[in-house]
Amino acid sequence: MFEKWKRKKEPLPQIDIITKWDKRDEDFYAPGALIRVTGGKDLLVENFSEEPGEKTYVTLMFDGKPLLQLQGYEYFCPTCEKIVRSGYQLGKGEFHVEKLNEGEVSFADAFNEIVPILGLLRDNYYVILDTELYPTDGNGHLFWNVPDSNQPMPGSCLYYRGDGEWGLLRPYFTIATQSIKNLNKSRVDYYREHIGCRALAYYMDGYMTALIDGHHKAMAAALEHKKVNAFVIMPCYLQRFGQGNGKFRSYIAAGDMRFACDEYGIDDIPKVMVEKISEAEMENINRMISVPEEKFPYDSDALASYYPSVDEISCIDAAGEISDERLDRIVSEQDVCQIDEIITLIKAMGGLQHKRLFEIGDFFLQRCSYTFLPRYHNPGMAEAILDELMKLPRDTELENYLIDFMVECESDFPAVGEKILEYL
User: Fold this and answer.
1) How many domains, in total, are found in the chain?
2) Could you tell me the pTM of the whole model?
């Protein structure tokens, strides 16, 4: 689709790499690069409705067509979950990058291939992450079968975990921008044999991205119950923090990554113009974005069930490393966990489908000396553990375990008992 823009006799956009990193560490959770786009074509951009309020939207656009839209009653509130709509407007001319179709390609080689797409962006700084995405929306829907949400969607903004704890601003999930009509099962089968190929996505907010290339790769990954490798484009924004005596230090940030301007020699921060469009223009976009989709040909719910939820992802981030050594210390009661730490750990293990989930869940419910009495006064802990246990592959052992727990604790946890009965 972008080939026609390359053929125009115009100055080529300039893509400068400010810094890059090749591995995960305490500062960076995935390999990537910080870049600056100069002379961009302003074709792959975000548009905002004219005034914040009940009709505030942000829409990812390509060449005047909507790809994905987030909407909330107060969009500029960073913790207000948003209604999500997909435009499916790329049609048959999906972005196509040949190097991303090869599994064993270095970051540098693959990055060079997406430079023409980066030239379609608005002038700004961006982070390009070489990461993995879950092919779902984090709310039980496969990426290619996400309904237009009539209610705000968890994961569409900074996620609130409760008790003053917040999730991270990192890309984990993705939503299609291409119609199901373009699904080609032979291409899906090809990528099931080449599962390491990269997709390409644009970071929107919270945990959410818009998938702009690689729908068949993501579908193949879902059928194999894997994550899809992806480059994620993350737009940057300016932050300033006071240092006392009226002095400030400037940073550019993408999600929860920050780069000090003085450290990276950035002294020419562009004033990124947030394009605000009129109510009439937004109504026209909304007419384009409300396109009925065909019936999805796969069992979306079953495929999505293999992946963590938004809540579980927030717990995976918060739980830290879940090693056998750590779990052994917990089981031997060398390490004592508070109730909120137990809930976080169990939800994280559930989201990761950890092989020791049943063992650790049973320990906290039945064998842990320091939670035995508190559990009777904290049904939230028991409910959280049982919720994760009920996501395990169903067998007679698990069913008998749940029945025994229900009989033992029904008077203390009637709501849990009802949930187990419904499960059985």
Assistant:
1) 2
2) 0.85
